[in-house]
Each structure stands twice: as C-alpha cells, then as structure tokens.
Fold:
Amino acid sequence: MPNAKDAIDARYSRHCRLPELGRGGQERLLSSRILIVGCGALGAAIASLAARAGVGSLRIVDRDFVDLGNLQRQALFDEDDVAERLPKAEAARRKLARINSGIAIEAIVADAGPDNIEEFIRDVDLVLDGTDNAETRYVINDACLKRGIPWIYGGVVGVRGLVMSIMPAAGPCFRCLYPEPPAPGNMPTCDTLGVLATVPSLVAALQTTEALKILTGATPAPGVLTVDPWQMQFQAIDLKRRDDCPACVRREYAFLDQGRTSRALRLCGRDMVQISPPEPTHIDLEALQRTLAAAGRVSNNGYLLEFMADDCELVVFRDGRVLVKRISDLSVARAIYARYLGA
Amino acid sequence: MKIRINNREQEISDQASLIEVVRLVRSTTADDPMLKAIRQRTGDDHISYLVNGKVVAPQEYETTPVKEGDEVRWIHPAFGG
Ligand SMILES: [Zn+2]
Structure:
C-alpha cells in the first residue's frame, strides 16, 4: 500500500522536481481550494489544467449547457455532451473526475451574480475568471476585493487576449483598468467577432500559471499582459491604481450591492438571450414539462428542460433561468419568457 | 517631442494632449481587422489608454496633457471568454 508521499511523487513527480514548486509547493496546491466562474473556452481549459496540476478542490459555476459550436475551442467537452444537452459545469465535473480522482470537484449550474457570488467564494483561496462578459467580472471584482481574495482576470476576443492578477491588498484592480462597464449590447464579443481557437487556451494557461504561483506563495506578475498570437506580440504593461478607483481605493462595491432584478442578456457566441429571474428560485422541471406539453414539444434530462413551439425554442434550468434560442432582441425574448413562464 | 506608444518611440507635436495620441492610434490601426470590425459594429474601438501606467477615462482625453518622455499604452478590449 503506497503512502501519501509516494502517491504525490508518482503523480506529480514533474512538479516535485521543479525548483519553483517542489514537493512542498505540490502539497500546498493539493490543500488549495479555487473557484472557477464560467466554464466556456477559458473556464474549461483552466479547470483541466488546474485538475491535472493537483489543485485539491475545484468549484465550477456555469450557467450554460454544451452546444456544438463550443467544440471548436472548449476543452473537456465532446459530441456526447452535446447530444445529452449536459450543463457545462456537470459535463466538466464528469471529465475532470476521470482525469484526477484524487481531488474534489463541485459543479454548480447557476449564473454567478451579486446575489450568489459571496456564497461561492466564501471558502476559496482564489478565483479564476472563465466568464464571457463584462458584467460578471465587475461583480467578481467587487466580491473578491470585499473578501480579500485574489482573482485572475482573463479575457479574449478575436485573435487577442488579456491576463491580469488582482491582489486585493495591493491593487490595482479590474476597475483600475476598466473604470466603467461598457453599455450593454455595445461590447464586441466572441459572438459578433469570433475567436481564434487557440487564444482562450493561451490565456487560460497564463491565468492558471498565475494561480499556481499565488497558491504556492510566489509573487504574481504585476500589471496586465496583452497577447496577440496572430502577430506573435506580447506586451507586459505596468498598470497603476487609479487614485479615485471606487472599488479598490474607496471600497464601494456598486456591482455587488446592486439589487437583483430580472435580467436579460445576449450570450457570447450564441444567437440566444438569457432571462434570469429576479430572485434565486427552484423550478420543478417535471411539473413545467406537464404544463408546457400542451403548447409544444418538451424534453427534460433532469438538469434542464427543452421546449419547442411554433414561434420559439426555450431551455429552462432548475435555477429559473431561461434561454430563448434564435432570438437576439432582448424585448422579444422577454415577451416569449412572459408568455410561457408567466413572469 | 518624443513619447513612447506601446513601447515604440513616436514623434508628436509639442503641448499635445492625449486626444492627439488617440487620433494617431486610430489612424495607424485603421486596417487592423479586429479593431475595424469592432468600430463598424459598435461605433467605437473600446481601446483603453494608459499614460504612465494610469488609465484615462475617455471624457478626459482632451484635457490630459502628454509630456516629453511619457509612456502611453493602449489596450484592445477583451471581454469574451
Ligand atoms: Zn481599482
């Protein structure tokens, strides 16, 4: 019966031999706990790297399910997941459990936002950004600064990406880089501009490296790194705290404190609108299946319900969120939501 | 006077403000496929400008002076994942 030390040596020998980590560093990783918010291209690549590297406990939160268009770049997912319509967090958990059975993996199908983010980060050492929108990143920034938890921003669009480690005590923070959010619907996304398959992998590898450094007590890179692998141009940019930063200087957490209302937003990479209920809720999918059966075709895999009528196609999650497919107009999506979900 | 824009030395007029640098970057990136697409679709390129490490808000471009030897950086937007 091999002891724990031998098991660490066998599985993580390449880390144990690294002077930068050593067995001590590996043991610290194994006792670390991280949150990955979003499990699309960035999040899935981060989760895969972190699980193989032996980060002891991963919590993965994602609001979406696996779609054929994701397979072009999103590690961990395959055609079976598409056929099964698995939520990304759950599909990722199943794959990761086969990659590394020695770590704990928790999958949460939810839309991380101001009402639940503090619950998700309460016991983690670090947060990794795998999100696909600006809004959620402002919420993560507020929550992590408030709780004193480091987080690592990563973003991509087209052939370019950014990475930045945010250390709450030292700053600068996300709002030192982007003081105000872009107007909704006025931001270039992977949806409108596309994204080169390799760019999220590159950014995720840099983010995860920053995480491994922070978790083992090394110093993260200061400032922002911009990457453009198409031109093979990388820039390390010194970023200073803004003297009047509302988040890291004045400690005002406007995005965390905002009351949650029913929200509609277009999803990155999809011709689809997501409607979130004003408060966290739990939907009885079987009951809804019976109700909607009169109006169209319904199927339910236990995680989500799909509904097809003449005028629309909906996906309903247990947490009350609804995806309105093949619609990009927010008010049309809201009207369809109201018609079938009655809100 | 000479300043550095994304690590390259550039000559700009004396007593310039950041808006001159912004215009220069817009013209030198006019053919950049991604920035072009972003400008066409959203009416703005969403580039962030930093002077000596600090981000400047768009409403302050005209009033932010740029001095000899200043380090200006511009960063493309990246909010996807
Ligand atoms: Zn800040």
Q: What stands out?
A: The first strand of chain B starts at residue 2 and ends at 5. The two ends of chain B are 40 Å apart (CA to CA). DSSP finds two helices and five strands in chain B. The longest helix of chain B spans residues 18-28.
